[in-house]
Write a structure and sequence with these properties.
Two copies of one chain form a homodimer.
Chain A (H helix, E strand, L loop, with lengths): L1 H27 L11 H8 L3 H13 L3 E4 L3 E4 L4 H13 L5 H22 L2 H19 L5 H14 L3 H20 L5 H19 L3 H25 L1
Chain A binds a DNA duplex (30 and 30 nucleotides) through helix 1 and helix 3.
DNA sequence: GCTTTAAATCTGGTTAACCAATTTTTAAGT
DNA sequence: ACTTAAAAATTGGTTAACCAGATTTAAAGC
């Protein structure tokens, strides 16, 4: 297990080195938006790494929108000049792993927005899906079972109803880690869940009534309890 | 060009199919958190696709935190039960590509938060980096040159100073596409840039003074002009 | 000298074979 | 029977060879 982790970290380290070198190359060659990068084979030779490693680094830069690979043609720098490229690569390399606090902080921010947008834009279908998630949660809680999953599916249904694909995507990205941490610290125990039903209902009603202010307030109330709970955990851990 | 796009879409389509089938499998076999998935080879045979395709699908699910591959051991379902797994896979498959409106909407939301956090948490180093970005922007604008890149690096410096790695990451993800769209629609022309200098300065001063309310207000002012501009573009395009 | 065509080269993507570590099975020892 | 050890099978990861399409080069035709 130790070795496995070590090799994974090593692999990430070489990837970071390659990303850095690609950045230097773009600087050195003064590559403008749309210009072609040297081929993967040349880069692997130049950097003295395998082509797989080069591909990995390029894929990461592609994810962040800095490069674009076109099959049978080449890899091109995106519509971003040298200056932004440098800044962003530096930031990407220095990016820290998300911790629980940053996740919760971000989640609250996102959801106070998605619930507002959902109340404004929700279709009848959206409302139905949210209602289903709400019922599933209530049913599970009343049976006295753990309902963390149903809880978060309710929140994801709201994110979907927001009609904002970027916010929806971001919610999907952070949700699993939120769940993991919740279960790790035993957030959302049964007493909290009981209260959760009422709070969820209040949020649902506000979305149904298409009242954005009320929706946001009810979500805030919902998070207030949760945040207190998380904060106490954090201090004691 | 047409063919190239077609194959990429095809490839994504098969990946979606595989993701869906993996979801069904988890349901059918009632796999709980921590359980092992069948091996990549078995899945590729069962689904009648190449192992590469299976790997791609698994990697995507790994990105969203639903699976975890451990070398020489297997692929395991994350600490998320069947119900959340189903819901999330469904959401991921239905996720739409981000459009300009959702990007701008999300950016404004994120930045009203990062600027507030930055004013509270910024170190002296952070402040210096923000100042550097500010100077670079001003210098470029006063020379009458395009300064979209420097503009966004200023905003990224603030995101970094927020001390929230998740928010910072999200800002990095949306920034390139924002830049692309800005240049596409010629947002941030020279007249706007002149005004931008003053607005950036006001934001910087508030962060320096560690005044979160003022910082947020100044950022709001800054976006107000921008949002109007973008909205007009959207209507006319 | 210019255009057109064909051949050679170069590109990112894919795949089958291989690797090292793990896990399971088998068998040996007591 | 139980423990231990060793060997066989299985695992995700890696790599070198291959692929099809794009690009460049060369040459042929006029």
């Amino acid at each position: 297990m130790k070795l496995e982790v070590a090799t994974k970290i090593d692999s990430l380290d070489t990837q970071k080195t390659i990303i850095s070198k690609i950045g230097e190359l773009i600087n050195f060659k003064n590559l403008e938006p749309g210009d072609k990068l040297p081929s993967e084979r040349m880069l692997s030779e130049k950097f003295e790494v395998t082509r797989s490693n080069v591909r990995g680094a390029i894929q990461k830069l592609e994810f962040y929108g800095l490069l674009e690979s076109i099959p049978q043609s080449g890899t091109f720098v995106a519509n971003i000049g040298v200056i932004a490229m440098n800044g962003m690569i530096e930031d990407i390399l220095k990016l820290e792993d998300p911790n629980f606090k940053s996740l919760v902080e971000t989640r609250i921010l996102l959801e106070l927005k998605t619930v507002r947008l959902a109340s404004l834009r929700r279709t009848d279908e959206d409302l139905e899906r949210i209602k289903e998630a709400l019922d599933a949660y209530e049913k599970k809680v009343l049976k006295g079972e753990d309902a963390v999953q149903e809880d978060l599916l309710f929140h994801l249904a709201i994110a979907k109803a927001s009609g904002n694909s970027t916010l929806n995507n971001f919610m999907l990205i952070i949700t699993p880690e939120i769940i993991t941490n919740f279960e790790k610290y035993h957030v959302c125990d049964k007493s909290l869940s009981r209260q959760g039903i009422e709070e969820h209902n209040a949020i649902f009603d506000a979305i149904k009534k298409q009242d954005p202010k009320l929706a946001k307030q009810k979500m805030k109330d919902h998070f207030n309890v949760l945040y207190q709970y998380c904060y106490n955990i954090k201090k004691s851990s």
